[in-house]
């Protein structure tokens, strides 16, 4: 067995490395609340989730006081089958009704009696409760969800019906209710996985809560690794450049194998943060690096500057009373002898026993490398949090630009990054700005900011090494090449003598004429120019000095890469080892992501129910697409075999696997108002008033007003009044006052054009159940009123 199988983190079961029980997780799952007792949800500014509208609506609700009762509406009917049956089939007195209500809003209805029947069309009807009525309505407006069949003599007549209304009280009193099979067995035929094969012994790997995990379950997101170090109080800003060593493939995910690579790196080198702090300390104490090196060489005497002399120089400088040595003293207290040896090795990448001034001045290069690593971290953070597209970066630029100006200045960039939630301090954020200022004018435009999408720190260091090699081979060396830059600058400006600095235009002309673009086609010359300007420790003025260009002499890209030795020591000291660190971080991350996943799943489902109407194009696409568990299963198939994903899973059916919204929510934005429950849900402030159902009058039975729910033209209103009058035995306008028969009504309506569904009263077959019920007919026979018998 491999080492990872023996000592790797346990991904499943109750025991999770350092976590021996799931009590804390259970508490987290049972108390998902925000600061004020309201459900909390983090909505990414640039990545809107299905629950965004839900959060906006929830914010409009009145927050109850601690002692205030806050109730919610409940439905008086439970999903399941309702059966009514009376009489016998032998003497043709059998009357029956079958009604199936499903939690997704769909329904099935069939009623039979002597001389006729009515049934719902498969997939075309839905149910909702409106006050005292159970309404079975058509899914798509303008169509019919029910079919009425009536036997008249030797003829069988079929008519379309758009709506059926029943009394909730009579359905509850007269029908036998049978819960759906899923009430007792939610997943028929499904054998739950053993606790040892579930995350924390609780969560199945096919759970919807794990659908939107940003990485494989056996890995840690890059940002989660950083957040865990912050939670333990570690100085993340000071070890930022070390993080790239644990994500070598730059996929944003850290595996146990990635972290174990920290133990395999060879010769240690100092981190850019350590070298930058030494540069600041020497500059404050001696004025410049050149003067500091002169003091170092004077202290060495006739001997060369080697590691013992370097250590002695630092010790003496930290204890000396001359000059401002406070920062050097602080730096010496923070570093060990091994750290200072790594600093010497970083200035001497070729392994020579001594260093010279050119080597010593490479501390400037490490300062620029630190800015590059910080910019790389900012780029990866944007990718992880918001995305990589051009539109995403445009929105990020607008979010950073709080002043709504066309460009970003340094202060606006720093303040905007902090407001955006970037976890690094303002000092580190400000050091990136110069690398984004491609016009060298102290401003970053949207076009400049978009270049960050294609930025690569490794490519930059490789191009820098290529520029040094090209200057040595084709331009006569570093000093000779800078003279050519000055000559080109003289020609560009028409100066009588050589200038002391060279612009980017001069560098571009010289490199193009010498063929650097062909030798290194991927090199970003503007970024190389910004890097050398940043290395001097001052903000670029648009020109390079001889000292800045001379930094290429001591350049060695291998030394600039750094070493993960410092990060390895921190992890070993804090967690006891690399494996233990991964176990602890992975467990802490899984706990957080499971709670967040449950929140997102519940709130996204509720938002879908509230804002995606049943039968809408979005709903149909979701119901016809890949089932949620199938997508999670395909992702899990790529996980290592040791995860044990071979347990049985419930069958995946597109309609059954997704919870569909209660369709009444589409028509009732103010919430359900059910007479079957004493609980009420307050209407959202500013929301449109819901359609109301007036209580039926004794003379009209259970006829309900639909004027506010479905506007009708004058002709349809006239037909409705005529049909109601016919069914009630009243005279119609222009008639003699006698009640017409069904055939006479059919004759009157035969010349009418086809109209949209119009409501008519119909006394149902079952007096005990639907007495009276309401049916909505349509089509050429829309004016027909069946007389009650």
Structural account:
- The termini are far apart.
- The longest helix has 34 residues, at 578-611.
- This protein has 789 residues and is α+β, with helices and mostly antiparallel strands.
- The radius of gyration is 38 Å and the shape is elongated.
- Helix content is 42%, strand content 11%.
- Helix 10 packs across helix 11 (326-334) and helix 14 crosses helix 17 (426-436).
- The strands form four sheets. Strands 1, 2, 3, 4, 5, 6, 7, 8, 9, 16 and 17 form an eleven-stranded antiparallel beta sheet that branches. Strands 10-11 form a two-stranded antiparallel ribbon.
- Residues 635-661, 699-708 have a biased composition (Low complexity).
Low-confidence stretches: 1-51, 620-789
CATH topology of the domain at 457-560: Recoverin, domain 1
Helical residue percent band: 40-55%
Structural class: alpha+beta
Distance between the termini: 82 Å
Radius of gyration: 38 Å
Mean pLDDT: 69
The CATH class designation of the domain at 457-560 is: Mainly Alpha
Shape: elongated
Beta percentage is 5-15%
Key attributes of the depicted protein:
disordered N terminus, calcium, 32 helices, 11-stranded antiparallel sheet, Recoverin, domain 1, 789 residues, EF-hand-dom_pair, elongated
Condensed summary:
Residues 615-710 are annotated as: Disordered. With 789 residues, this protein is α+β, with helices and mostly antiparallel strands. 42% of the residues lie in helices and 11% in strands.
């Amino acid at each position: 067995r491999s080492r990872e199988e023996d000592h790797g983190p346990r991904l499943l079961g109750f025991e999770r490395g350092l976590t021996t029980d799931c009590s804390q997780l259970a508490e987290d799952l049972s108390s998902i609340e925000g600061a004020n007792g309201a459900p909390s949800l983090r909505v990414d500014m640039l990545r809107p989730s299905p629950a965004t509208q839900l959060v906006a609506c929830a914010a409009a609700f009145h927050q109850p006081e601690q002692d205030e009762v806050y109730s919610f509406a409940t439905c008086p009917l439970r999903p399941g089958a309702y059966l009514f049956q009376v009489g016998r089939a032998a003497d043709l007195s059998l009357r029956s009704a079958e009604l199936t209500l499903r939690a997704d809003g769909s329904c099935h209805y069939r009623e039979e009696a002597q001389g006729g029947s009515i049934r719902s069309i498969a997939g075309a009807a839905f149910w909702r409760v409106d006050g005292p009525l159970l309404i079975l309505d058509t899914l798509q407006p303008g169509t019919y969800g029910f079919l009425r069949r009536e036997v008249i003599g030797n003829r069988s007549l079929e008519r379309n019906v758009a709506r059926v209304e029943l009394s909730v009280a009579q359905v509850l009193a007269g029908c036998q209710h049978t819960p759906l099979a899923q009430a007792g067995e939610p997943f028929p035929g499904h054998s739950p996985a053993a606790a040892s094969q579930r995350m924390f012994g609780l969560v199945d790997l096919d759970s919807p809560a794990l659908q939107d995990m940003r990485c494989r379950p056996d890995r840690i997101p890059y940002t989660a690794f950083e957040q865990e170090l912050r939670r333990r109080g570690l100085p993340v800003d000071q070890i930022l450049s070390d993080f790239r060593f644990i994500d070598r493939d730059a996929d944003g995910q850290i595996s146990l194998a990635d972290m174990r690579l920290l133990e395999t790196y060879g010769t240690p080198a100092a981190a850019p943060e350590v070298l930058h702090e030494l540069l600041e300390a020497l500059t404050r104490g001696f004025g410049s690096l050149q003067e500091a090196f002169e003091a170092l060489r004077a202290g060495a005497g006739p001997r060369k500057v080697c590691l013992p002399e370097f250590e002695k120089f630092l010790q003496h400088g930290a204890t000396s009373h001359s000059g401002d040595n406070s920062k050097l003293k602080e730096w010496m207290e923070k570093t060990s002898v091994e750290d200072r040896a790594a600093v010497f090795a970083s200035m001497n990448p070729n392994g020579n026993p001594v260093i010279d001034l050119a080597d010593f001045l490479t501390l400037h290069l490490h300062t620029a490398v630190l800015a590059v690593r910080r910019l790389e971290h900012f780029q990866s953070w944007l990718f992880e949090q918001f995305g990589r597209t051009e539109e995403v970066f445009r929105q990020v630029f607008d979010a950073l630009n709080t002043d709504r100006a066309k460009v970003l200045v340094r202060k606006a960039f720093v303040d905007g990054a902090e407001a955006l939630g970037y976890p690094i301090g303002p000092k580190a954020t400000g050091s990136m700005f110069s690398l984004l200022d491609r016009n060298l004018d102290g401003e970053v435009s949207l076009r400049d900011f978009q270049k960050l999408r294609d930025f690569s720190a490794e490519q930059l260091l490789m191009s820098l090494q290529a520029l040094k090699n090209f200057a040595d081979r084709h331009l006569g060396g570093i000093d000779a090449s800078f003279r050519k830059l000055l000559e080109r600058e003289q020609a560009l400006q028409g100066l009588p003598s050589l200038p002391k600095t060279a612009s980017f235009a001069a560098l571009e002309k010289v490199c193009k004429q010498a063929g650097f673009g062909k030798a290194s086609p991927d090199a970003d010359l503007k970024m190389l120019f910004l890097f050398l300007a940043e290395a001097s420790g001052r903000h670029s003025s648009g020109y390079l000095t001889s000292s800045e260009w001379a930094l290429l002499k001591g350049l060695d890209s291998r030394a600039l890469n750094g070493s993960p030795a410092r990060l390895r020591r921190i992890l070993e000291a804090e967690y006891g080892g690399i494996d233990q660190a991964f176990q602890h971080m992975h467990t802490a991350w899984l706990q957080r992501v499971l709670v967040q996943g449950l929140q997102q799943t519940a709130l996204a489902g509720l938002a879908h129910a509230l804002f995606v109407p049943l039968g809408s194009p979005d709903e149909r696409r979701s119901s016809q697409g890949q089932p949620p568990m199938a997508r999670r299963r395909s992702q899990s198939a790529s996980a290592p075999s040791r995860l044990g994903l071979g347990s049985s899973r419930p069958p995946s059916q597109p309609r059954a696997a997704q919870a569909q919204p209660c369709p009444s929510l589409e028509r009732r934005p103010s919430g359900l108002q059910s007479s079957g429950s004493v609980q009420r849900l307050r209407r959202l402030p500013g929301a449109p008033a819901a359609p109301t159902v007036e209580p039926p009058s004794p003379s009209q039975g259970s006829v309900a007003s639909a004027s506010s729910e479905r506007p009708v033209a004058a002709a349809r209103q006239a037909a409705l009044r005529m049909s109601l009058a016919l069914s009630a035995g009243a005279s119609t306008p222009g008639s003699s006052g006698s009640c017409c028969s069904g055939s006479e009504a059919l004759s009157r309506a035969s010349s009418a054009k086809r109209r949209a569904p119009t409501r008519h009263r119909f006394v149902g077959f079952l007096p005990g159940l639907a007495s009276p019920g309401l049916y909505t007919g349509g089509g050429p026979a829309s004016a027909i009123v069946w007389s009650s018998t």
